[in-house]
Each structure stands twice: as structure tokens, then as C-alpha cells.
Amino acid sequence: MFFCAKYIRKYREIVQMEKTEAIVDTCFLEKLSAGGKKTDNIKAILEELDFKPVAHPYICEHELSVNYYSEELLKTGYIKKIEYSEFLKDAYDEQLYENYFLLLHEDMRSYLEAKGGIKQIEKLRIHPGHTIYDTHYQGSSMGDVHMILMAAFMRLPVILTEDSDIALLSTLANKRLSLGTYNLVIYDAWDLVKQIAERPDSKVSKKDLIQILNDMGERDKRSEMKTIWNNNHDS
User: Fold this and answer.
1) Are 87 and 23 in contact (CB under 8 A)?
2) 3-state SS of the chain: helix, strand, coil percent to 5?
3) How many domains does the chain have?
4) Same domain, residue pair 117 and 158
5) How confident is the model at residue 214 (pLDDT cuts 50, 70, 90)?
6) In terms of domains, do 80 and 143 share one?
7) What are 109-145's pLDDT values in tens digits?
8) How do beta strands 51-55 and 185-187 pair?
């Protein structure tokens, strides 16, 4: 019994190592799970595409931990919480991270202000005795900046989000940081549904995808998904 259990654990570790780590945020999980009511949708989509969901410690503490379903996904280890020590190795890394954080947040604020759209963010408010790690308030977009920086520091290839600010921050980060050949890809839930529909050997059925789109509140995308599916499947 012990022998079998040991090799089962080893097999699971190998499978996990083969998956691509993808940073997830709250809005992506909310969308794909229909506000936490259909967490199996998250697992079905990510497992089909061989993504291992990981989360920034700031997002875990200030966002995921306040929702029962995402907290459970963290507790069970389905979503891996990345620790700061995994990407901030020493005091130099910490100082560099904090400097880039302030620069990117202000770059984003200035860009949105100049653009003049509906979405605006105010100047960063960090009170005495507090830091970028323990400051959190609605509409600050601090979590977005944290995610982009963790992705860059760890060279993680994928962010899964419904937030358009992430794409903007990625562009700004490319101008600020020396990233070399590093390339970040950003997907939303609909992007993942389309990728699965294109797979001729998908374990997720067309019927499943239709239901997932219904759960996501994206009924208007069912026709496009069916077309993609039919173009890639014999029946």
C-alpha cells in the first residue's frame, strides 16, 4: 500500500510539473465560476489546457481570501499561492520591486488620465507605517501592478484575467523593465473557451462549453463557439 501511494504521489508531482503556471486574478475566477457557484468550470477549463493556477500573495491576502470558494481553492492547493520569497530573493530585489511598483502605478494613472476615459485611478495613497504590500483599497489597481511585476520577476508566461488594465500594464512594464526575450501572454475566459473549441481531441464537450458560456453570462458567444467547434470536429 505504501509503495503504491508513494508512486502515485510521484506521478502527480510529475504531472503538475508539466503544466504551465498561469497567474489568476479574482475577476477571472469570478467570471469562469459564475461568482463561485460553478468552480468545476475553472477546473475543467484549466485542466483541459494544462494550466496550473497560481496567485500573487497580495491577491491571496486581500482578494481571494474574502471569497469562500476561492479561499477553498487555495486551502486545497488547487490554486498555488506564490510566496514573496520565491521572487524577491534579497533586499536588492525588494527595493527594485518596490521602485518599479511605484513607477508602473504612476505610469498607468498618468496614461488613463491623459486618455480621458471613464476608467481613472487616483494617486497611490500609502499611509505612514504601511507599505505596498499591506495597503489595499477599492479601485486602486494595486493588485494588477503586483501581478505584472511577479510575472516579470518570475518570467511566468501567462496571466488569466478579465481586466483590460493588465494588458496596459504589460505594455508599460516592457518599457520600464529590461525583460529581454521574455514574453507574457494574457487570456480571458472567452479566449480559453475558444482554444478548447479548436481542439479536435478535447475532453470538454461542445455541450459543456455551451453550459460554461451560459454560466459566464456569454450566451451571445455560443454561435461563434459552435462554429469554431464544428470547423475542428468531424461531428
Assistant:
1) no
2) 60, 10, 35
3) 2
4) yes
5) very high
6) yes
7) 998 989 877 777 888 889 999 999 999 988 889 999 9
8) unpaired
Angle of CA points 7, 11, 14, to nearest 5° = 140
Higher pLDDT: 8 or 185? It is 185
Please tell me whether residues 23 and 57 are part of one structural domain: yes
d(CA 52, CA 35): 20
Is the predicted pLDDT of residue 7 greater than 70, yes or no?
Answer: no
The kind and range of the H/E element at 185 are strand 185-187
CA-nearest of 99, 58, 86, 105 to 153 is: 86
Q: pTM value?
A: 0.89
136, 62 contact by CB (below 8 A): yes
Q: Do 107 and 75 share a structural domain?
A: yes
Mean pLDDT, rounded, for 203-226? 98
Helix (H, G, I), strand (E, B) or coil at 225: helix
Length of the chain: 235
Tell me how far apart the alpha carbons of residues 235 and 231 are, in angstroms, rounded to a whole number: 9
Within the chain, what is the greatest distance between any pair of CA atoms?
A: 65
- Say if residue 101 is in the same domain as residue 212: no
Same domain, yes or no, for 77 and 141? yes
Q: Which amino acid is at 87?
A: F
Question: What pLDDT is recorded for position 29?
Answer: 98
Question: What pLDDT was estimated at residue 121?
Answer: 83
- Which pLDDT score is estimated for 118? 72
- Residue 222 sits in which domain range? 190-235
Do both 229 and 159 map to the same domain?
A: no
